[in-house]
Write a structure and sequence with these properties.
The chain has eleven helices and seven strands. The protein has 316 residues and is an alpha/beta fold. It has two domains: 238 residues, Spore Coat Polysaccharide Biosynthesis Protein SpsA, Chain A (Alpha-Beta Complex); 67 residues. A seven-stranded mixed β-sheet has the order 3-2-1-4-6-5-7, with helices on both faces. The two termini are 26 Å apart.
């Protein structure tokens, strides 16, 4: 237990036979349950976990997926187990030992003290992040972080793809885990759902760990299109559920106006270019209309974002 609260750690694992033992051995002693999710592993990960489980049968739980569901699916299974076990909080630590166990108390403290419902590690706060994190992963994460800020309404969070998190019992019971995205975009999906349920989210500085033998099947540039599409859908999902169904806020109109103006500026721009080529002159009315629409669209977008930031200030 940690300050009178029961703590579970969900460990999603897929072919982590080399590092799963290190992950278990370095787990802080205050952790009550280590919930390891074998996400259809094809190596000896489950066998190694069973060896540790034989020594700590009350502490180590092994959940197994017959087929690989993705990291989001594995985390969801672990969260559901922790929810049903009525644990006070559930952390997530990957099975590849990339998350420093010494950072866990800093993530757990705000939850235990009632200051946050969900904490997430932020590797960007440290000055070491640019040097330690592979540049492609860093830049890809930065792009997704900006999009996630807009989609989730948590403008104060960064490092959106960080999987080192802690969630409290209240949030565990509030989220519909069966609808959760099962792939790499699970952290983005979860932030949106947390915002809809008005959960307080806090970033905590963690140390980036790379080059310890971990293998990543994620190609940052390749996943940006698919995750961006997910983030776009979740943005619409949040607007509909938070600002139309559960409550009403005029920022919806500002967003709609911004997107409409930006959309109609595209054919105006094409016409401007086409007429300029045909006549060798810039059509003044077309040019003025395009400039006016672009300025109005950008202003509407900024107003909507500002309203969204103000509305969610209490969720810091």
């Amino acid at each position: 237990m940690y300050k009178g609260h029961t703590v579970g750690v969900v460990v999603p694992a897929y072919n982590e036979e080399k590092l799963i033992g290190q992950t278990i051995e370095t787990m802080p002693t205050f952790v009550d349950k280590i919930v390891i999710v074998d996400d259809g592993c094809k190596d000896r990960t489950a066998d190694i976990v069973k060896q540790y489980q034989a020594e700590q049968p009350e502490r180590i739980v092994l959940l197994r997926h017959q087929t690989n569901q993705g990291v989001g699916g594995a985390i969801t299974s672990g969260y559901i187990w922790c929810r049903d076990a009525e644990l006070d909080m559930a952390a997530v630590m990957a099975g590849d030992a990339q998350m420093d166990p010494q950072d866990l108390p800093a993530l757990v403290d705000p939850i235990a003290e009632g200051k946050a419902d969900y904490t997430k590690g932020n590797r960007f706060i440290s000055g070491e992040s640019w040097r330690k994190i592979p540049k492609i992963r860093y830049l890809g994460n930065a792009v997704l972080t900006m999009l996630t800020k807009i989609a989730s309404g948590y403008w104060h969070v960064a490092d959106s793809q960080s999987g080192y998190t802690v969630i409290n019992k209240k949030a565990l019971h509030a989220i519909n885990w069966y609808d959760m995205y099962k792939g790499y975009g699970q952290p983005n999906d979860l932030l949106v759902r947390l915002n809809i349920n008005n959960m307080r989210v806090l970033d905590v500085e963690i140390r980036p760990i790379y080059g310890i033998g971990e293998k990543s099947g994620i190609h940052p540039l390749a996943i940006i299109p698919s995750i961006s599409w997910l983030i776009m859908k979740m943005f619409v999902f949040r607007m509909w559920h938070k600002y139309i169904i559960r409550d009403f806020h005029p920022l919806v109109f500002f967003y709609l106006l911004a997107f409409f103006l930006i959309f109609i500026s595209i054919p105006l721009f094409i016409r401007l270019v086409w007429m300029t080529i045909l006549t060798n002159n810039v059509p003044p009315i077309n040019a003025l209309a395009l400039i006016f629409i672009i300025i109005m669209g950008i202003q509407s977008l900024f107003f909507a974002m500002w309203f969204d930031m103000s509305y969610n200030q209490d969720l810091k």
